[in-house]
Amino acid sequence: MKKYEILGNKDTRSGFGEGLNELGKINPNVVALCADLIGSLKMDDFKKNFPERFFQTGIAEANMIGIAAGLTIGGKIPFTGTFANFSTGRVYDQIRQSVAYSEKNVKICASHAGLTLGEDGATHQILEDIGLMKMLPGMTVINPCDFNQTKAATIAIAQHNGPVYLRFGRPKVPVFISENTEFVIGKALLLNPGTDVSIIATGHLVWEAIKAGTILAEKGISAEIINIHTIKPLDEEAILMSTKKTNCVVTAEEHQKNGGLGDSIAQLLSEKFPVPHEFVAVNDCFGESGTPEQLMQKYGLTSEAIVSAAEKAIKRKNS
Amino acid sequence: MKPDITYLKQLSSQVRRDILRMVHAVQSGHPGGSLGCTDYLVAMYFHFLKHQPKKFTMDGKNEDIFILSNGHISPALYSVLARSGYFEISELATFRKINTRLQGHPTTHDYLPGIRIASGSLGQGLSVGIGAALTKKLNNDKCIVYTLHGDGELQEGQIWEAAMFAAHHKVDNLIATIDYNKKQIDGSTDEVMSLGNLKEKWQAFGWEVLEMNGNNMENLITTIEKAQTYLGKQKPVVILMHTEMGQGVDFMMGTHKWHGSPPNDEQLKTALAQLEETLGDYK
Q1: Cβ of A26 under 8 Å from any chain B Cβ?
Q2: In this structure, are residues B64 and B51 in contact, taking their beta carbons and an 8 Å threshold?
Q3: pLDDT of B1
């Protein structure tokens, strides 16, 4: 199992904030909007450095999405910022009609996704956002795994012409992707080659997948670990190539099983290469208050859960 | 430029004929509000807008931009777009038919020249118009953004989010117009969800408010000219446009019943007899 050095502990939202500020310097068409969460979204630097290109919308997310759609008329590239819950479920129809159906070049940037928002509880812990966004025709859906990848993704999506949903989180988590790693939309990252099981993870679960790979290696199991940061469009080639080698798969994500990454991969495999598939995801329930660690433990989104799922998948393959 | 009122009135008559023939042909669509807003749309597309119908671009740089928020009055918009040269007048015959670019509600999806945003789900166009106006300011583009909304549409909360934003951010290169016909699908706005004192509401939100008779070409011209004099003064501008749903066809006026119902063969004949064919019907 390849060793991954922890380069630091940082929140992915700060990767977004740095990426956005960088974009401000290099792309004069980039503008940003925020619905009263500048500090939470780490948009302070962009606001300070590019005040004429920053718009505070107040607590009015529907209006923020509509304004972002309008800003594209004339060539601006708007980045909207609020919590993932208010970036998707709350404004679904605005995104559907004014952004996705109208094919507007809006980047919907969403922090505090999933359970790791923590103590605020289920009202704020959206676990359905990937599903909501990936169902929209033409929408690109990205869920990076650490600070460096989030920063690189933020910069990369400005170059992509079309609507994008960029999902990141609140807590400080290990940084392990080198800052020189190129971010290519729709291209999977192979983190560890293996032969017994494919572990395909996104977001905060990627680090858990790496930890699981180490535990499995100690048990003599060779896990191939793949980071899917772009859930749509899905890197079908990378997933099929890995699965044809290992013949079983585990998917891991901080999202509902319904509508998430695992669901996309299950569709792909059922059509092209059916194999045993185990899901590490939230199973049709809401979250609750607690620390991020407690919640990930309680809802089974840990390296241990990935190890069990991998063993189960291998057993099913061999039975 | 002095408007040719006679020509504008001829256009209105022809656009009304187009609307009735379009909704009749597919036995679906929304004639009531379309007929009510015809004079306004004619005044916009044939007098006020600085635009290049033959060279449509999505960005519309250095052109005025018009955003239709109440997308269900698409027949009226399609007619003025075609007759001002965005596409062939004959394409009006494809309205709401399979594979058409003239979808039931306007969309950018099929690259119909003249459409810059999809509308249909109500309440979204004011935000979009404000965004386009902000981009004009950032681009140092002195042209204007116009938006049109139904009065029933003001029951959507997003409208008031946008109203608050425009005043706070001093969006003073935008003129919103409300089709104040006091009717919606289920009945009068007073019965369904009263709008209260609209003038005072918009004023309280920090907007400059004007009123006009949207079915009187002379009054339309002078009021919109006046509205333009309020631009650039740190306040957004709204016009409460009093109209009659179904304007121009006697049996369609004074009721909400023709909001979303097409005329039958007999009714079409009666209606067309009241509207002169001034510029030739589409084939």
Answers
A1: no
A2: yes
A3: 76
Domain residue spans in chain B?
A: 5-272
Q: Number of helices (H) and strands (E) in chain A: give both, helices first.
A: 13, 14
Q: Which CATH number fits domain B5-272: 3.40.50.970, 3.10.310.10, 3.30.43.10, 3.10.180.10?
A: 3.40.50.970
pTM, rounded to two decimals: 0.97
At residue A172, the 3 state secondary structure works out as: strand
Count how many pairs of residues, chain A against chain B, have C-beta atoms within 8 Å: 119
Does A137 contact B at CB distance below 8 Å? no
CA separation for the pair A118, A289 (Å, rounded): 6
Show residues of chain B in contact with A76, CB under 8 Å. 135, 138
User: How is residue A165 written in tokens?
Assistant: 């949903």
How are beta strands B145-150 and B65-68 bridged, if at all? parallel
Residue A174 contacts B, CB cutoff 8 Å: no
CB contact (8 A) between residue A94 and residue B132: no
**Residue ranges matching CATH 3.40.50.970 in chain A:** 10-175
Task: State the best of B156, B158, B160, B173 to mutate against chain A, taking most chain A CBs within 10 Å.
Answer: B158
Residue percentage of chain A with pLDDT more than 70: 100
Cα gap A148→A152, rounded to integer Å: 6
Q: Does residue B29 contact residue B73 with C-beta atoms inside 8 Å?
A: no
Least CA distance to A71: which residue of chain B? B131
User: Do the chains contact at B127 and A67, CB–CB below 8 Å?
Assistant: yes
- For chain B, say whether A63 makes contact (Cβ under 8 Å): yes
Chain B residues within 8 A of A97 when measuring between CB atoms? 118-121, 124
pLDDT in tens, B86-141: 999 999 999 999 999 999 999 999 899 999 999 999 999 999 999 999 999 999 99
CATH of domain A189-318: 3.40.50.920
Place of tokens 């910069």: A155
| Section B204-214 average pLDDT | 98
pLDDT of residue B2: 87
Number of H helices, E strands in chain B: 9, 7
Which tens digit of pLDDT belongs to each residue from A85-140? 999 999 999 999 999 999 999 999 999 999 999 999 999 999 999 999 999 999 99
Nearest one of A162, A185, A164, A63 to A103, comparing CA atoms: A162
Q: Which CATH architecture has domain A10-175?
A: 3-Layer(aba) Sandwich (3.40)
Q: List residues of chain B with CB under 8 Å from any CB of chain A.
A: 58-61, 65, 67, 107-109, 116-121, 123-136, 138-139, 141, 157-158, 161-162, 164-165, 168-169
8 Å CB contact of A74 and B165: no
Asked if the Cβ–Cβ distance from B117 to A102 is below 8 Å, we say yes
Residues of A in contact with B57 (CB under 8 A): none
Q: What percent of chain A has pLDDT over 90?
A: 100
A34 in reach of chain B (CB within 8 A): no
